[in-house]
Specification:
Blueprint: E1 2-6, H1 18-31, E2 36-42, H2 47-51, E3 55-64, E4 67-76, E5 83-88, H3 104-122, E6 127-132, H4 139-145, E7 157-161, E8 190-191, E9 194-195, H5 197-204, E10 207-210, H6 213-219, H7 227-232, E11 237-239, H8 267-280, E12 288-295, H9 304-314, E13 320-327, H10 329-341, E14 346-350, H11 354-363, E15 366-369, H12 379-385, E16 389-393, H13 396-401, E17 412-414, H14 419-434, H15 436-448, H16 454-467
Parallel strand pairs: 1-2, 1-6, 2-5, 6-7, 7-10, 10-11, 12-13, 12-15, 13-14, 15-16, 16-17
Antiparallel strand pairs: 3-4, 4-5, 8-9
Helix pairs in contact: 1-16, 8-11, 9-10, 9-14
The structure holds adenosine-5'-diphosphate (ADP) and alpha-D-glucopyranose.
Length: 468
């Protein structure tokens, strides 16, 4: 069986967040089981693409409205543990950034159109298309309702919702850019009077999955307008929690950290912390708390400055705080102000920095995640893998993967994103940090937990098999 994962991101080719991590790992682990999994993604002007050899395996043209675009499919099957196919379209799919362009909807229509055009020519019969998020959400509709893709009709499709907040909305006038479809079925593309690719995915795919069980339940109540749709399609829904790639996220081998360590030699973690504190001017003896992530409302980033400010006052001289992230300019500015207000106690690095993120997981004592919405969350899993205790708001995947120490777990959780609840969670963490024997026992325990992809990769395969 040939499984094609279709995604806007895939680590290490191009990653903005957890979608990239998942698509860069899941096919590799599936290939060690019983399927042949590949990834199809847009071509980006990125280091990975420019530094590796790709073979041009196909080229042709597609028409979007009145505009003709030449596209090319490039392949590399040697580096990632799966076949990687990149769709390149000069002027559309040849850019540096993954998201953020004003004509993003044209980019993703072209991506989906070109890849289906190529798959039709490929005449691969035994295939299943696994679409990730709204960027590939139109595919199940296109293959059923566009004459041009007749040959793919009846191909099983799986849709995975990594984040239901983003739906890829576009005005109906953009329909002229799509491959010609049966107008009688246009309702499948529509939600609330606009084209909604995520809604189209949920309506048309054969099975849909969410990246944790808890998030699936949450979507029935809060899904940025799609609650009733998720609920009405729930007979084909599955919640499957993400795993982590143990080959990339392994403190005993990680080339991006200063000192490698395993669970039985936790001193290695201290060495990382020492070097890190020196670099950022923190006091080594104080517990180090960190936040890594996109600075957006969903992650609670609007409240982060308030929380940190409160920590610096309530627990003056009892902790240090490191932030790595980028997003809303207003949140970035507020965080940088805190760095100025609390020198040597708060450090803020604005931007995306893969190496620094690994060093933060390795060096911190606690990782703080006050997310409002967290479909799965990988940061808390990486943190535990590196012996760093997660402090999380109980939501979605965070609630599924982190159990509070008071209940025999390895993290700290709180219900609401309020200053008082956060402050009490931080107080608990500072107290745990003082009890060194318990702290180290807990670190070993969290590092030994199995969050590998093995089990979840098999669960996806079971779904594929049930559809064929
Ligand atoms: P999301 O996909 O919603 O952003 P996840 O927790 O699933 O959240 O995944 C976030 C991923 O992106 C993790 O691998 C995390 O380490 C990484 N990450 C987020 N922000 C940054 C950043 N500024 N620099 C480096 N890595 C980051
Ligand atoms: C999304 C979610 C995040 C999840 C990731 C990978 O970006 O916001 O919670 O871990 O996808 O599935």
């Amino acid at each position: 069986m040939n499984i094609y994962h279709i995604s806007a991101e895939c680590y290490p080719v191009a990653k903005v967040g957890g979608l990239g991590d998942v698509v860069g790992a899941l096919p590799k682990y599936q290939n060690r089981l019983s399927v042949n999994a590949s990834v199809i993604m847009p071509w980006y002007d990125r280091d990975f693409v420019n530094e590796h050899e790709f073979e041009a395996i196909f080229s042709d043209e597609i028409r979007l409205g009145t505009q003709l675009y030449r596209y090319q499919v490039l392949k590399n099957g040697k580096v990632l543990g799966f076949n990687l196919f990149l769709v390149k379209i000069p002027g559309l799919l040849d850019r540096k950034e993954v998201y953020g362009y004003a004509d993003e909807h044209i980019q993703f229509i072209a991506f989906q159109y070109a890849l289906l055009h190529w798959l039709c020519a490929k005449k691969d019969r035994q295939l299943l298309l696994h679409c990730h998020d709204h960027h590939s959400g139109l595919i199940p509709f296109f293959i059923e309702h566009c004459d041009e893709f007749e040959i793919l009709k009846g191909t099983p499709t799986v849709g995975t919702v990594h984040n239901g907040q983003y739906q890829g909305w576009m005005d109906w006038q953009e329909a002229v850019l799509m491959p010609k479809f049966d107008w009688n079925h246009r309702g499948l593309l529509d939600w609330d009077g606009v084209i909604n690719p995520l809604a189209a995915l949920i309506k048309c795919c054969w099975a849909y999955t969410t990246v944790s069980e808890g998030y699936l339940e949450e979507l029935f109540d809060e899904a940025n307008g799609l609650e009733t749709l998720f609920f009405s399609e729930k007979q084909k829904a599955h919640g499957i929690v993400n795993g982590i790639d143990f080959e990339v996220w392994d403190p005993s081998k990680d080339p991006l950290i200063n000192h490698n360590y395993q669970h039985e030699e936790i001193e290695g973690k201290q060495k990382n912390k020492k070097a890190f504190c020196k670099q950022f001017g923190f006091s080594y003896r104080l517990p180090l708390f960190s936040f890594i992530g996109r600075l957006v409302y969903e992650k609670g980033a609007d409240l982060l400055p308030l929380f940190i400010d409160d920590m610096m006052n309530t627990y003056a001289d009892k902790l240090s705080f490191m932030v790595l992230g980028s997003g809303s300019l207003a949140f970035e500015r507020e965080l940088l102000n805190l760095q100025d207000a609390y020198p040597g106690r708060v450090a803020v690095k604005i931007g995306y920095d893969e190496t620094l993120s690994h060093q933060i997981y390795a060096s911190s004592d606690f990782l703080f995640m006050p997310s409002r919405v967290e479909p799965c969350g990988l940061n808390q899993l990486y943190a535990m893998r590196y012996g760093t205790m997660p402090i999380v708001r109980k939501t979605g995947g965070l609630a599924d993967t982190v159990t509070d120490v008071s209940l025999g777990g390895t993290g700290i959780s709180f219900e609401n994103e309020s200053v008082s609840e956060v402050s009490s969670a931080i107080g608990k963490a500072i107290a745990i940090h003082k009890r060194k024997v318990e702290l180290n026992r807990n670190r070993k325990k969290m590092m030994e937990q199995d969050f590998s992809w093995q089990r979840s990769a098999q669960k996806y395969i079971d779904i594929y098999k049930s559809l064929i």
